Prior knowledge:
Number of domains: 2
Bound molecules: zinc ion
Helix content: 10-25%
Structural class: alpha+beta
Number of strands: 9
Amino acid sequence: MNVHGYCTRCKRIRRVNVTAPFTGTPTGICAECQQKEVDTRARVGELTIYVPVGPITSIIDPGSAVVGRPGNGSRTTVYYESGRHYEEHDRTFDSLLLHAASRLVTKYPTIALASLQDDELIPVGTYDYASKTHTITDPTTFNAWRAHART
Length: 151
Ligand SMILES: [Zn+2]
């Protein structure tokens, strides 16, 4: 249902697609933002969330968000973010993921990247950069890694 309301993506009042019943101002996603999401998904695809193991963990801070695209060789380039320089409220895993993934997607020059062997990375989930949502498929490994995050 398309009604006049608040777009939660671009934060503007536009015609938005509302799927749930609402009271007050309808909120949803406008057609422009929806299209942008479709384009981004086509361009970026799905990223993999990793937990690193071995010597690299002396370089990557425990609990960091680590993302990459599964390589077609035996090495994968990952981008990571520990939140070390962030304000405390900005150190949620979602926030760290977004920062690391944004650098990967834009190929932003950064020192926070590493080329790792497959046996140095445990895939623990996926990240959909288009909708900024993640899914954890190995909560045991993920939670053990996150338990040591700087908070
Ligand atoms: Zn919008």
